[in-house]
Design brief:
This protein is an alpha/beta fold. The chain has one domain: Amidase signature (AS) domain (Amidase signature (AS) enzymes). It is built from 18 helices and eleven strands. It has an eleven-stranded mixed β-sheet, with helices on both faces. Strand 7, helix 10 and strand 8 form a beta-alpha-beta unit. The chain is globular and about 65 Å long. The relative contact order is 0.14.
Length: about 525
């Protein structure tokens, strides 16, 4: 039965419709793996065993009724009916928690479904539980979670990336074939790269943000994690579309072809012929690991050999992207997080009996250091006398960054290829003492959010035994074309030896003596040098 966890979502869908497996059986085997291995990974914050099995039984009933109705009735079912999926713990599900990785929302129970959750339920998907994340999606390693870090199944001493590290890990570890993350500056694509899975940030407005705990409202976007492009297309199709409850969701049609990406590798590879791909020189940033650059250039060369036309381009304002992002995103977060005051929901410290004192104590105890840092940065950037100098200027530079991309599309390019992350997964604690070094992890991804564009990270081999991601960036609303390019790359590399590899240390998660990420963090903190001690702890 453990082999069922190695199936792709589209393979599960085919077996479900043929009656060769039940959704209950699929759900049970995934729940068992998640419950057995989560101690060593800390990827799940909550697992909904009872609700998941009930949803699976309901899906089996829907499929059985459709089978009795004939081929047309079966075809009318969404492919995700009966398929397990995981949600990042800032996606609200009625009756379930939504902590956003923060103590300030500990104990909060959502009274309604987010649009994403409602659409997955309507499709018949089985929600297994909620995954770990950096607090309020602020981080690139999932070390900023109030509930402890998540481990990367390729190397349990390393991070899975962030902020959607839990969602990437559960897909890489075969706990779920699909998961949902959010991407504000790379928080789907970067962990997808570090965990060796597919992760897509759609065009801003493609997926409704209603019911998602907000970080930076002009940048946040919901998207899928999967183990191949076909599965990513299935999940994207299920959650996309206009939502009247979200004024920023667009009335753009959802392509039905997302459900029908080619199954044949040769057919998929043929899509590359004649496609013009841009390779921006600025994305091979200073400090990029040589192995990462080599794998990305090899991937682009393979696409060129399969018929694509590759040309180097310049995106001259890329260098300003990091600074611009870290003015705009903290400014928006300082506004969004003002609602967490200990009055309406979540943590509430009322020990002093005075409103202002209780407000300060609640936020002081409820928010972690990274969230506090960004709130202070954002409040400063928006304050009187500094708004024009910082926030307004950053918005003007944001327009220039978008114009760089627009020039590429105007020149007739079909997509941009670039590294996803400048490094492979790094060790726990390696960047925690240097916020700027941590921020640089998103240097290749955040310009895409600034411009509101779609981007997808796909596995492109290994460097020093750890996954490397190739990022494909497209024009607005070009998700289908991007996934076709991703599927084409899967086609031309289908027989590459690295495709057959599983995460190298996943087997250790079955050993109850394997240290948990929380224990590893405690050991790191215990071994850290004391300030002023000359390096002696």
């Amino acid at each position: 039965m453990s082999d069922l966890t190695r199936l792709k979502a589209h393979e599960m869908a085919a077996l479900l419709r043929a009656g060769d497996v039940s959704s209950v059986a699929l759900t049970e085997v995934h729940l068992a793996a998640a419950e057995r291995q989560n101690r060593a990974l800390n990827a799940w914050l909550v697992i909904y065993r009872e609700n998941a099995l009930a949803a699976a039984a309901a899906a089996d009933k829907r499929i059985a009724e459709a089978r009795r109705g004939g081929p047309a009735a079966l075809a009318a079912l969404h492919p995700l009916c009966g398929v397990p999926v995981a949600l990042k713990d800032l996606v609200t599900v009625k009756g379930g928690q939504a902590t956003a990785g923060s103590k300030i929302l500990e104990g909060y129970i959502a009274p309604f479904d987010s649009t994403v959750a409602a659409r997955m339920k309507a499709a018949g998907a089985v929600i297994l539980g909620k995954t770990n994340m950096d607090e309020f999606a602020m981080g690139s390693s999932t070390e900023h979670s109030a509930y402890g870090p998540t481990a990367n199944p390729w190397d349990l001493t390393r991070v899975p990336g962030g902020s959607s590290g839990g969602s990437a890990t559960v897909v890489a570890a075969y706990h779920s074939p699909l998961s949902i993350g959010t991407d504000t500056g790379g928080s789907i694509r970067q962990p997808a790269s570090l965990c060796g899975v597919v992760g897509m940030k759609p065009t801003y407005g493609r997926v409704s943000r209603y019911g998602i705990v907000a970080f930076a409202s002009s940048l946040d976007q919901i998207g899928p994690f999967a183990r191949d492009a076909r599965d990513a297309g299935l999940l994207l199709h299920a959650v996309s579309g206009r939502d009247e409850r979200d004024a920023t969701s667009a009335p753009e049609p959802v392509p039905a072809e997302l459900l029908r990406l080619p199954s044949n590798d040769d057919e998929a590879a043929s899509y590359l012929k004649g496609k013009r791909l841009a390779l921006p020189k600025e994305y091979f940033v200073e400090g990029m690991e040589p192995g990462v650059a080599e794998r990305v250039r090899e991937a682009v060369a393979a696409m060129e050999a399969a018929g694509a036309i590759v040309e180097e381009v310049s995106l001259p304002h890329t260098d300003y992207g990091l600074a611009t992002y870290y003015i705009i995103a903290p400014a928006e977060c300082s506004s969004n997080l003002a609602r967490f005051d200990g009055v309406k929901y979540g943590l509430s410290d009322r020990s002093s009996g005075e409103f202002i004192a209780d407000y300060i104590r609640t936020r002081g105890a409820g928010f972690g250091p990274e969230v506090k840092r960004r709130i202070m940065l954002g409040t400063y950037a928006l304050s009187a006398g500094y708004y024009d100098a910082y926030y307004l200027k950053a918005q003007k530079v944001r327009t220039l960054i978008k114009a760089d991309f627009d020039a590429v599309w105007a020149a007739g390019f079909d997509a941009i290829c670039a590294p996803t992350s400048p490094t492979v997964a790094f060790e726990f604690g390696a960047k925690m003492a240097d916020p700027v070094a941590m921020y640089l992890s998103d240097a290749c991804t955040l310009p895409v959010n600034m411009a509101g564009l779609p981007g997808v990270s796909i596995p492109a081999g290994l460097s020093e035994g750890l996954p490397v991601g190739l990022q494909i960036i497209g024009a607005p609303w070009s998700e289908l074309s991007m996934l076709r390019l991703a599927r084409a790359y899967e086609g031309i590399t289908a027989r590459a030896p690295w495709r057959a590899l599983e995460p190298a240390e996943l087997y250790l998660t079955d050993d109850p003596t394997t240290p948990s990420p929380i224990e590893r963090k405690e050991r790191l903190n215990a071994d850290a040098p004391v300030a002023g001690s000359g390096g002696q702890s």
